[in-house]
Amino acid sequence: MRKPVVAGNWKMNGSAESVEVLLTAICAELVTPGPEVIVLAPFPYLDKVSSKLQGSAIRWGAQNLSQFEEGAYTGEVSASMLADFGCAYVIVGHSERRGLFGDTDELVAEKFCAAQQGGLIPILCVGETQVEREQGRTLEVVKKQLMAVVDKAGIGALTGSILAYEPVWAIGTGLTATPDQAQEVHQALRQHLVGLDAEIAANLRILYGGSVKAVSAGELFQCADIDGGLIGGASLDPVEFVAICRAAE
Fold first, then answer.
1. For the whole model, what pTM was predicted?
2. Which among 36, 96, 110, 166 is annotated as catalytic?
3. Over 80: is that where the pLDDT of 172 sits?
4. Using CA atoms, how far apart are residues 176 and 234, in angstroms rounded to an integer?
5. 136 — alpha (psi -120 to 50), left (phi > 0) or beta?
6. Is 128 among the residues known to form the active site?
7. Which of 6, 8, 11, 84 is the most interior residue, by most CB within 10 Å?
8. Quick one: average pLDDT of 39-58?
9. Residue 220, Cβ neighbours under 10 Å: how many?
10. CA-CA distances (angstroms) from residue 2 to 36, 70, 206?
11. Rounded to an integer, what distance in angstroms lies between the CA atom of residue 229 and that of residue 235?
């Protein structure tokens, strides 16, 4: 049975004080959480996150990484650097990286491989824009994004990794895909992988991300192929985030 996951993506938010307050509140409530709980913090706060969560039931990671391991790449952060701070996870291919910073499918695949080579578990994000959905291209787009990684790394690389479906039109907009819309895409992604390796497809955890709130989480997480959530804005509110984690139990 697939263990549910709730991952909180803080994006470019926080301060030393707010991180302390947020983690204190979350740790007090999630002493022995049912789902796997992850916080994904901005680079400058990884030291504080590592210190605060050491020995807790909550794991942590980063929101991006370089495709390079070391060298003359000013401003970049490698997988081994993240591992030094106890990171277990890293996001690759978030729609904001794709849309705002030009991360192509090929670059996302390189970052996925770099994460695994550095001992991190990649959380691979795929998702369509509003225009692509209106054109009826949702499944085409998400399968292409997924297969860019599979073609480079091999189907076996998905073992132990996490996939996240995040419709771009539902991120930070307040819009949320209906459970039926989300389940349709999750099921299609899993079925697509069945043809490559049925066991990997069955065990792969697929998260939904896109303005998830406590009020919508329960119904989303009840869907057969939705194994938890990649939570954005709501992860900055400890009450909301804990409620979402409870919904995933």
1. 0.97
2. 166
3. no
4. 13
5. left
6. no
7. 6
8. 97
9. 25
10. 11, 35, 10
11. 11
